[in-house]
Design brief:
By secondary structure, the chain is α+β, with helices and mostly antiparallel strands. The protein folds into six domains: 4-63, Helix Hairpins (Orthogonal Bundle); 85-321, DNA ligase/mRNA capping enzyme (D-amino Acid Aminotransferase, Chain A, domain 1, 2-Layer Sandwich), CATH 3.30.470; 327-429, OB fold (Dihydrolipoamide Acetyltransferase, E2P), CATH 2.40.50.140; 436-508, 5' to 3' exonuclease, C-terminal subdomain (DNA polymerase, domain 1), CATH 1.10.150; 513-588, 5' to 3' exonuclease, C-terminal subdomain (DNA polymerase, domain 1, Orthogonal Bundle), CATH 1.10.150; 603-678, BRCT domain (Rossmann fold, 3-Layer(aba) Sandwich). The protein contains 25 helices and 25 strands.
C-alpha cells in the first residue's frame, strides 16, 4: 500500500526508458484500480486515471511491449468478501473505449449497430434453467466472480420465473437509480455521512450477505447482452439454440417479452450515428439512472463474432466515454467542513466557471488522499469538469504548488485532528465528542423545514447559541426568552429579528410525531420512514418509543437496519429522557389524513417544477394525506405522473408514455382532489 507522496512520485517520474515509465504507470493504475474496485475508495480522480491509462496505451503501442501486469490486459481486480466464488465459463472482457464520435463513425463502417446506455453500476451474469433463476454471479475480476443468487432474487425488476423453459444466460448491469439513491440518503441526517454516489451504494448492496438489505435498496437490473439461449432435451441436455435471426436487436426484443428490463437503445448507421449520440447526450440531465457513456454493438451477430477479440476487448462492440467539458480556473482555498460524525471533508473553492451550461465555483475533493495526490495549493491553476456531466470535480492541477496544509486542529472546536486510514484512503476527523460542529449539525437538522421548520436559525446563529451554552438540548430552543438580552446583543440580532425568531419557535410547537422523530436525527430515519412508523402505531408516543425490532420490520418499507437503529436510539436512557423533555414543549397533533378521497390507494410520481405549491415535499404531503402514495420513479404500478411540462422528453415522461401512465399537470391534480383553493 503506497501513500500519496509515493504515488505522486511515480506519476511525476519520467526518467529512464519508455519501459521504465510503463512500469511506473502500471504500478500507479493497479493501485488506484484496486482501491476503487475492491475497497470502494478513490485515491485519484477518474480524469487523472483516464489520462494515465491513455498514456500507458500510447507507450504500449509505441514500444510494441505489453507487460502481463498491465491494466490494459487485466480486466478487473480480485474481489474481497465472504461470498462464495465461481469461475466464469468464459472471461468477461471489458470494452475498448474512445471519446471521439468520429472514431465511432469510422468503426461502424457500413454495418448497422445498436447504440445503448453504458450503465454505471455492477455487472451481473444471470442463469435461468427451466424457467427459474438458478444462479447470479458478479463480474468480479473477469475470470472469477461472487455468487449472489439470493440477492438477485430480490432485485426490483428481475423475474424469478420466465416462460422460456430452456437454459438462458444473460449479462446486465445492477444499478440504483438517482431517486432511490436520494431516498436512501434522506435517511441519513448528516450530509457528510451520506453515500457519495449510486455506484458505490449499488456495489455494496448487491454483495450483501443478508439479502433483506439488498431488497431495501431497490437494486434494478438492466440486461445488455444475451450470452446464450438454448432449448433443452427431456434429459436436460442442450438441444437447439433459439433463432434470433442473426440480430442483437431481436435478442433484446425477446428478453423484453420474457419480462426483463433492457438498456435503452437505438438502431443506428454511420449516417445518423453522431445525431443519435447527441440525442442520448441531451437526455442525461433527465435520466433517473447513472451512466458513464454509450455502447455501440454490431447488430449482425455472426459478423460481430467473426471479428474475434483481443486479450482484453471483444471486437463486436466499443464504448464511448463522455468527452468531459473542462475549464481552467484558479484555486482560491480549500474549505474544511466538519460534520456531526466527526469527519472533516475538503471542498475546493475556485473562481467561477461555466460547465455543461451551469456556473460552478466549488467541488468536493472527497478526502486527504486526493488533496495530496493533486498537490493542491492556493493560487494553483486547475482544470475542473463535471463527472458524468453532473458532479463537479478537479481534473488536473497544472501548477502543483502543494501549499495546502492539512489542518492539525479542528476548524470548529480547535481540538487536535486525527488522520484515519480507510484502506488506502486518508480521512481527517475531529475526535472531540463535544465539538461544536457536531452539535451545530444536529440542531441544524432539527430546525430544518422537513423537521421542526424553525426559520431564523442558520448554522452561524446556532453556533453562537451553542458556544454561549444557551443551547444544549433540543428542548432548550423553547426557552430562548430567558436569554433575550444576550441574544439581542449578538451581531445581526436586534429586537425585531429576535421577536421573529420567537414567533417561529412558538409556531413549531404545533407539529406531528413523524416530524419530531425525523428531527431528532435517528440514524437511517428519513421523514418518509418516520411517517410510516408513526402511522403504524397510530401516532401513539408510548407505542413508538417501546417498539421492538420485530414490530418495526412488519411495516412495509422498514428493514432490519432501520429497525435496529430505531430501537437502539430509544434504548439509550439519556436520549429517551431528552425526547420526553422535548415533547413537554410540544403540542402533537394528529396527522391530517383522509380515509377516502378520489385518489385513495393510487400511486403518484412527481417531476419537474411546480407553479402553485411551494415544493415537491408540500405536494407529497398533500398526496399522502389523501390516502395515496408517492414513488420515486415511474413503473407499471404508477397511476399518475404529475408534470407541468407534458411535452418534456425527460426519462419519467418517456417511461410514462411507454407504459400508458396518465400524465397530469399540477393544476389538474388539484382539481382532481377538489383543492382549487390552492390554485
Amino acid at each position: 500500500m503506497m501513500n500519496s507522496e509515493e504515488l505522486n512520485g511515480l506519476i511525476e517520474d519520467r526518467s529512464g526508458t519508455d519501459a521504465d515509465r510503463m512500469k511506473r504507470l502500471i504500478t500507479v493504475l493497479n493501485e488506484a484500480g484496486r482501491a476503487y474496485y475492491a475497497e470502494g475508495n478513490e485515491i485519484m480522480s477518474n480524469f487523472q486515471y483516464d489520462a494515465l491509462y491513455d498514456e500507458l496505451v500510447s507507450l504500449e503501442e509505441k514500444t510494441g511491449t505489453i507487460l502481463s501486469s498491465s491494466p490494459t490486459q487485466n480486466v478487473g481486480y480480485e474481489t474481497l468478501s465472504e461470498l462464495p466464488k465461481e469461475r466464469h465459463a468464459s472471461p468477461m472482457l471489458s470494452l475498448n473505449k474512445t471519446k471521439s464520435p468520429d472514431e465511432l463513425v469510422s468503426w461502424i463502417d457500413n454495418q448497422e449497430a445498436l447504440l445503448s446506455w453504458k450503465m454505471d453500476g455492477l455487472t451481473v451474469v444471470l442463469t435461468f434453467e427451466n424457467g427459474k433463476l438458478e444462479k447470479a454471479v458478479t463480474r468480479g475480476n473477469g475470470e472469477v466472480g461472487e455468487i449472489i443468487t439470493n440477492n438477485a432474487k430480490v432485485f426490483k425488476n428481475v423475474p424469478v420465473s420466465i416462460p422460456f423453459k430452456g437454459r438462458l444466460v444473460l449479462r446486465g448491469e445492477a444499478i440504483i437509480t438517482y431517486s432511490d439513491f436520494e431516498k436512501i440518503n434522506e435517511t441519513i441526517g448528516d450530509a457528510d455521512a451520506k453515500y457519495k454516489n449510486p455506484r458505490n451504494l449499488c456495489s455494496g448492496s448487491v454483495r450483501q450477505l443478508n439479502n433483506k438489505i439488498t431488497a431495501e435498496r431497490n437494486v434494478r437490473f438492466y440486461a445488455f447482452t444475451l450470452v446464450s439461449a438454448t432449448n433443452l432435451n427431456e434429459d436436460g441436455t442442450d438441444a437447439d439454440a433459439v433463432d434470433f435471426k442473426n440480430s442483437r436487436e431481436e435478442q433484446f426484443k425477446w428478453l423484453k417479452e420474457l419480462g426483463f428490463t433492457v438498456v435503452g437503445y437505438k438502431r443506428v448507421t454511420a449516417a445518423d450515428l453522431k445525431d443519435s449520440i447527441s440525442e442520448f447526450q441531451a437526455r442525461i440531465a433527465e435520466n433517473d439512472f447513472p451512466s458513464d457513456g454509450l455502447v455501440l454493438t454490431i447488430d449482425d451477430i455472426a459478423y460481430g463474432e467473426s471479428l474475434g477479440r483481443t486479450a482484453k476487448f471483444p471486437r463486436n462492440a466499443i464504448a464511448l466515454k463522455w468527452q468531459d467539458e473542462t475549464a481552467e480556473t484558479t484555486l482560491q482555498k480549500i474549505e474544511w467542513s466538519a460534520s456531526r460524525t466527526g469527519l472533516i471533508n475538503p471542498v475546493a473553492v475556485f473562481d467561477t466557471v461555466e460547465l455543461e451550461g451551469t456556473k460552478v465555483s466549488r467541488a468536493s475533493v472527497h478526502n486527504v488522499s486526493i488533496v495530496e495526490s493533486l498537490e493542491l495549493g492556493v493560487g494553483d491553476r486547475i482544470t475542473v469538469f463535471k463527472a458524468n456531466m453532473i458532479i463537479p470535480q478537479i481534473a488536473e492541477n497544472l501548477t502543483r504548488s502543494g501549499n495546502i496544509l492539512i489542518p492539525s486542529v479542528c476548524p470548529v472546536c480547535g481540538s487536535p485532528t486525527e488522520i484515519l486510514m480507510d484502506g488506502d484512503t486518508k480521512t481527517l476527523v475531529c475526535p472531540n465528542p463535544e465539538c461544536t460542529a457536531k452539535h451545530v449539525k444536529r440542531f441544524s437538522h432539527f430546525v430544518a423545514r422537513d423537521a421542526m421548520n424553525i426559520d431564523g436559525l442558520s448554522e452561524a446563529t446556532l453556533e453562537k447559541l451553542i458556544n454561549k451554552k444557551i443551547l444544549r438540548f433540543f428542548h432548550d430552543l423553547y426557552h430562548l426568552d430567558r436569554y433575550a438580552d444576550e441574544i439581542m446583543d449578538m451581531e445581526g440580532f436586534g429586537k425585531k429579528s429576535f421577536e421573529k425568531l420567537l414567533a417561529a419557535v412558538e409556531a413549531s410547537r404545533e407539529t406531528t410525531l413523524d416530524r419530531v422523530l425525523y428531527g431528532i436525527g435517528i440514524a437511517n430515519i428519513g421523514l418518509s420512514t418516520a411517517r410510516l412508523i408513526s402511522r403504524h402505531f397510530d401516532e401513539d408516543v408510548d407505542s413508538v418509543v417501546h417498539a421492538t425490532a420485530s414490530q418495526l420490520t412488519e411495516i412495509d418499507g422498514v428493514g432490519e437496519v432501520i429497525a435496529d437503529a430505531f430501537v437502539s436510539y430509544f434504548s439509550d436512557i439519556s436520549l429517551t429522557r431528552d425526547f420526553f423533555a422535548l415533547l413537554v414543549e410540544l403540542n402533537l397533533k394528529k396527522e391530517e389524513r383522509t380515509t377516502e378521497s378520489p385518489i385513495t390507494g393510487k400511486i403518484f410520481v412527481i417531476t419537474g417544477s411546480l407553479e402553485h405549491l411551494k415544493s415537491r415535499n408540500e405536494l407529497k404531503d398533500l398526496i399522502e394525506s389523501l390516502g395515496a402514495k408517492v414513488a420515486g420513479s415511474v413503473s407499471k404500478n404508477t397511476d399518475y405522473l404529475i408534470n407541468n411540462d407534458s411535452l418534456s422528453n425527460s426519462a419519467k415522461n418517456t417511461k410514462a408514455k411507454q407504459l400508458g401512465t396518465e400524465i397530469i399537470t399540477e393544476e389538474e391534480f388539484l382539481k382532481l382532489v377538489n383543492r382549487e383553493d390552492l390554485l
